[in-house]
Specification:
250 residues; alpha+beta; ten-stranded mixed beta sheet; 9 helices; 10 strands; globular
C-alpha cells in the first residue's frame, strides 16, 4: 500500500509544474486553497476529481487526502490556512470562482516575502473576505462506488466522445438503464446526462490547456459541432473556449 504523506502545515508558496506532473497523495492538518495561475490543475480525492483553470480555485479542507496533476505548464499558488480559519465553512473540497480581485490577492499572498508583517496580515484579511463571497462552481466529477457504475463511468472516461445511450452502456456492463439511473442519482448526486457533461467539460479544460484546437476538442469530447461545444462551455464558465486560452493573470 502506498504511504500517504502527512504534512501538518499546508505550505503557502508558488510552485511551477510541468504538464503531466503529479504531486502524489498527501494530507495537511491545515486547510488549503489551490489556484493555477497558469494552466489547468486537477485535484483528486477518494470522493472524486475537481478541476480548476486560471479562473477558478480549489478549496481543500484540512485532513483531506488529495493529489494534484498539472495539465499544461502550471503556475501553482498554494495558500495554507489554520483549521480555525475556514471562511467558507466547508468540510468537503469545492471549486470557487476567482474574479480579478481574488486572483490578484492569491498571486500577491503566495509570493515572497512570506513574512508576518502587518501589511501581509491586512492582505490576508482581504483575501479571506473575498473567499467568503466567492461563489462555488459545479466542476466536481464524483467517483462511483459500485462496480457497475464504475464500469460505465470507465467506458466514458476512456472515450468522452462515446455517444451510446444509458441503455446501450447498460447492456455493455450487464445492467439495466433503470438500475444505472438510480445509481447515478444515489452515488453521484446527478443524472447520467449531467455526469457526462461534467466529464466532457473536465476533459475539454485539460485538452485546451495542452494546446488542442477548439474544433478538435469539441470532436474528441463528444459534441456534435464546435458551436455546440462553445455554447455549453460559455454557459459553464462565462466565456468561450477561445477566450479561455488568453484568460491568464499577469
Amino acid at each position: 500500500m502506498t504511504e500517504i504523506r502527512h504534512q501538518p502545515v499546508a505550505p503557502t508558496r508558488v510552485q511551477s509544474m510541468a504538464t503531466g506532473a503529479v504531486i502524489d497523495a498527501h494530507r495537511h492538518d491545515d486547510h488549503q486553497i489551490v489556484h493555477a495561475g497558469r494552466g489547468v490543475l486537477t485535484v483528486t480525492t477518494d470522493r472524486g476529481t475537481w478541476v480548476a483553470p486560471a479562473t477558478r480555485a480549489i478549496w481543500v479542507p484540512g485532513g483531506t487526502v488529495h493529489a494534484h496533476q498539472a495539465h499544461g505548464a502550471v503556475e501553482l499558488h498554494l495558500v495554507g490556512l489554520p483549521v480555525a480559519d475556514n471562511p467558507l465553512a466547508l468540510r468537503e473540497p469545492a471549486v470557487l470562482a476567482v474574479g480579478p480581485l481574488l486572483r490578484e490577492l492569491l498571486l500577491a499572498y503566495t509570493r515572497p516575502p512570506l513574512d508576518d508583517s502587518p501589511a501581509r496580515g491586512r492582505l490576508r484579511g482581504v483575501l479571506l473576505d473575498q473567499l467568503r463571497v466567492s461563489p462555488q462552481q459545479p466542476l466536481h466529477l464524483p467517483t462511483p462506488a459500485s462496480a457497475l457504475l464504475a464500469a460505465v463511468c470507465g467506458l466514458l472516461r476512456d472515450d468522452p466522445a462515446d455517444q451510446r445511450t444509458l441503455p446501450a452502456l447498460g447492456r455493455a456492463v450487464g445492467a439495466s438503464d433503470r438500475t444505472l439511473s438510480r445509481l447515478f442519482r444515489e452515488e453521484l448526486g446527478m443524472t447520467f446526462p449531467q455526469w457526462r457533461t461534467q466529464l466532457r467539460l473536465h476533459r475539454a479544460l485539460v485538452l485546451l490547456a495542452e494546446g488542442v484546437p477548439v474544433t478538435a476538442v469539441a470532436h474528441r469530447c463528444g459534441w456534435s459541432s464546435a458551436s455546440a461545444f462553445i455554447d455549453v462551455f460559455r454557459r459553464a464558465f462565462g466565456h468561450t473556449p477561445g477566450e479561455h486560452r488568453v484568460r491568464r493573470p499577469r
